[in-house]
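Record type: monomer structure entry
Structure origin: computed from sequence
Chain ID: A
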Amino acid sequence: MTLITKGIFMACAISILTNMGLTNHIPKIADSTKEATMSTPEKNVQVMMQIFEAVEQRDPKHVDVEKQRLLFQPDVEFRWPSSLPYGGVTRGLTHPGPNWSDTWNPLQPTCAERRMNPRVVAANDHEVVVLWHQRGLSPKGARFDTEVLGLYELRDAKLARAQMFYFDEEATSRFLSGN
């Protein structure tokens, strides 16, 4: 069978399966034009989902600097509730003092604790709002799970600003202090 014949055969097979309503079983082929035709809010949502995936699948012993460069503005700003050990405003990906990773890595030993279940609530050309879970496991075996609402500002398809609102900030503080 020649390459052209194979192509025609595949096109006919896909057409028949489509007419029969069976195309959900055909593996999706990456469409190189899809990203070019995505709206700005769709691109922003895609970036945020890539960030959440990177956080969930992170290796606490190795920082993926290349991924950070692709997803974050160099001057990215993080705003955390001031009552938390890593609370306050920071700029850039490195800064002195306790940060979110230093605080949560020891409390998230498995993928179950790192799972965030992010759900996009809203998105526009500049911002994405995501509802997600902060989970942890204390050294004494106590489990923790609270919801967080994040307001994320993107610039040039990279995270420029993140502000997190913990639904139960007091319980989060108690869990982190070991009480």
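Annotation 1: The first strand starts at residue 72 and ends at 80.
Annotation 2: The chain has two domains: 1-30, 33-177.
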